[in-house]
Amino acid sequence: MVFKRLNDLDKTLLVIDNANQVQDLLQHRQLFERSHNCHILITSRTQPDNWQTVRIETLAPKQAIALFRQHHPSTTASDVQIKSLLSHLDFHTLLIELVAKSARKSAIPFEKLADLIETEYIRSKPLNKRGIDTGAGGDSIKNRPKKSKVADYIWFIFQNITRLQDRTQELLRAFVLLPTATFFGEEFLDSFFEVMELQSEDLYDDLEELVERGWLEKKDFSVATESEKEGIQYKIHPLIAEVGVEKLEVEVAFAAKYIQSVGNLIHYNNLNPEYQLIEKNKYKYLAERLSDLFFHENHETLIRFLGNIGYLEENYGQYQIAATFKERAMEIAIFLYDKEHPEVARLQVNLANTLQYLGKYNETTELMEIALVSYINHFGNDHSAVAITQSNLANVYGDLGRYGEAASLLEIALASDLKNFGKDHPTVAVSQSNLATVYRNLGRYGEAASLLEIALASAIKNFGKDHPTVAVSQSNLA
């Protein structure tokens, strides 16, 4: 709706900043390609082939020299010497800043700095010919070697000019787990580094060290009266983060506790009135960063984490995206456990629920039938997981018009839920509502109405009369 309104604006320039994932670019293009009124400018470090692009050029030599002197004011080198050094860096803004700050902080003489860059690195033919894409996928082929070269320069500066203590290096290693180009305040960072077990009395001195060397950016928002942010905050440049992930060996095991923490932040239960969907969604950007980093790793920590992202997306109606996350979680579980493991069955049910929303009923039925057999084998007929799966499978049977089979399963599931939870539990009300729907389709209206009246009374008792669940129950009964 927002995009539609923006499209209708006349004589308007809309800027979408920092869209670096190919899927984002394609979505934006699809949303705006038919616009006749609004002009759209997208900034991105990714450059897909066959897009109309305008490259941001490197700094002019005079500006590049001024930038170097700004970050290394004590240098006695002449403009000619500085220009010669910076030409090897292609006058790249980020590289100039990193070299100047690191050289100043490490007190490296200019002559040694120039020698390091010119003789030990820049003329290395194998490195300069590398064509590895270090950025987001989808770059045009001609753009990849240049980006790779910048990444190599960043790592060279880190190894040869920057001198970091081990704990400061660990802080940088942790910081790359956070969304890039995003400022984080001290309150968030305190809890983040505590989870990462990197808290110390000198924490902000170490962060200041990273700022002074150019690896992090710092800004005091207390003077920016129009900003919603407050106090001193820190962020990391996307290219520095990309190099850090690769070169500092940032792996799932290192991030495991933080992944669990973020997974808890986004965990949503639509049957619990204390869970607020919008509040949970506020933390999704943290989860998306971790997903980008570790999506293809086969690690136990990722199973529930990816499942939680999928369920959050599902509750916003993003069923295809949800299915992708849930399917990946299931793949990891199958890789790590036996196919008959109850965790695999749980993930099969979760994925099947999403596939049902997508209308893929045959795949849904197959997954749920496999999971139901697995649950019965592991837990017995009266377990709550068995009842939930029976209810879910019955719903699919209902979608396929197999109402008799659906009613039989739901009656068994309802009896089990009553035994396990008691008559006033929200799960029981859901089972009653599901069974009532099938009874209605079978023409058993009196039985359906009786069940829905009980379910409505339960919903009002559990959630209060103004809760959306109550409105759904009222609609079903009506």
Structural overview:
- By secondary structure, the protein is mainly α.
- 64% of the residues lie in helices and 4% in strands.
- It is built from 24 helices and five strands.
- The chain has helices at residues 2-7, 22-32, 61-71, 79-87, 93-106, 110-122, 125-128, 144-160, 166-175, 186-195, 203-212, 238-247, 252-266, 277-281, 284-294, 301-315, 319-336, 342-357, 361-379, 384-399, 403-421, 426-441, 445-463, 468-477, and strands spanning 12-16, 38-42, 184-185, 217-220, 232-235.
- It has a three-stranded antiparallel sheet with strand order 3-5-4. The protein has a two-stranded parallel sheet with strand order 1-2.
- α2 links the parallel β1 and β2 (38-42).
- α15 (284-294) packs across α16 and α22 runs antiparallel to α23 (445-463).
- The protein is elongated, with a radius of gyration of 28 Å.
Layout of strands and helices, then pairs:
Layout: H1 2-7, E1 12-16, H2 22-32, E2 38-42, H3 61-71, H4 79-87, H5 93-106, H6 110-122, H7 125-128, H8 144-160, H9 166-175, E3 184-185, H10 186-195, H11 203-212, E4 217-220, E5 232-235, H12 238-247, H13 252-266, H14 277-281, H15 284-294, H16 301-315, H17 319-336, H18 342-357, H19 361-379, H20 384-399, H21 403-421, H22 426-441, H23 445-463, H24 468-477
Parallel strand pairs: 1-2
Antiparallel strand pairs: 3-5, 4-5
Helix pairs in contact: 3-4, 3-5, 5-8, 8-12, 9-11, 13-15, 13-16, 15-16, 16-17, 17-18, 18-19, 18-20, 19-20, 20-21, 21-22, 22-23, 23-24
The proportion of residues forming helix, as a percent range, comes to: 55-70%
Global outline = elongated
Which spans of ≥5 residues are poorly predicted at pLDDT below 50? 123-141
Termini gap: 30 Å
Please compute the radius of gyration using only Cα atoms.
28 Å
Number of H/I helices = 24
Total beta strands = 5
Arrangement of strands in the largest sheet: 3-5-4
Mind summarizing the main beta sheet? Answer: 3 strands, antiparallel
* Overall pLDDT score: 87
In percent terms, what proportion of residues is strand? under 5%
Q: Give the helices and strands as they follow along the chain.
A: HEHEHHHHHHHEHHEEHHHHHHHHHHHHH
Oligomer: single chain
Structural class: mainly alpha
